[in-house]
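Researcher: Go.
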Amino acid sequence: MKINKKFFIALCLLFSSILISCNARSHETSQSLPKTLDEVKKYYKEQLVHYNKIDQHGIFVAYRDDVGMRYDIVDLEQQEIYRLPIMAGDLKLENVLNESEIIFLADGTNYLNSYEKFPYLVRMIKSRNGYRIVEEEKWNSVGTDLKTVAGKKGSIYDIAVNFDGIQIMFEPTEGDASNFYAAYTDIPETSIYFDENNQMVIAFEDALISDKIEPSPLTSIKNHYIQYIQFQQENNRAKMTIILNENAETYRVLKRNLEEKIPIFEIKFK
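Model: Structure:
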């Protein structure tokens, strides 16, 4: 396919102007910028959602504008504002490692569409031109509940167990393929909680357990942290109970998408 040369040049110029504009907004310096916490509150006015002190001079600010949630780091001593990269969901301060490296907790929500992740960490590293971000998995202590409130109806049709974790694959329920594949595929709304015996329970709403799944309990599994797995269908809820060994101390969960067709729930232990 041939690309018109003039169109290509115009596209390059447009892209360059966007980059220049983004760089210009990423770092703001002015004598009129805040130099106290009270001035920070006045500067952001009604857009201010929440803030945290990073150190003696740094303030992390979360605010809402016409785009959605935005995040700044305000240096009161230098009277500078660093515009952090736009994130799809909400961030909260998790840990300050040093003046150049800060870790935030992302709640997994998405303002751009309804696709929701499990909570994850965002590491922001200061450089000469502002901050760059690195997304990382969050490990949770066994006993910590998690939940997503967005998802799609689906049927559990396969489960893979390896040395340190489990993968659960979903397919459309009968007659629901068009909704399942529309825009993007996703696992059902998911809740992870622990019962009175500290057994892990994973509940998928609007989900079915396919006849393809081996009858539970699954006892002949080779996993360092799991004794066995029990499946149970409760009306429109598919429930999986995991009996953990005592050496399972932390876990992390994430959603994956194989070839944009097969949504996967993945959990690992350590």
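Model: Residues 1-25 have pLDDT under 50 and may be disordered.
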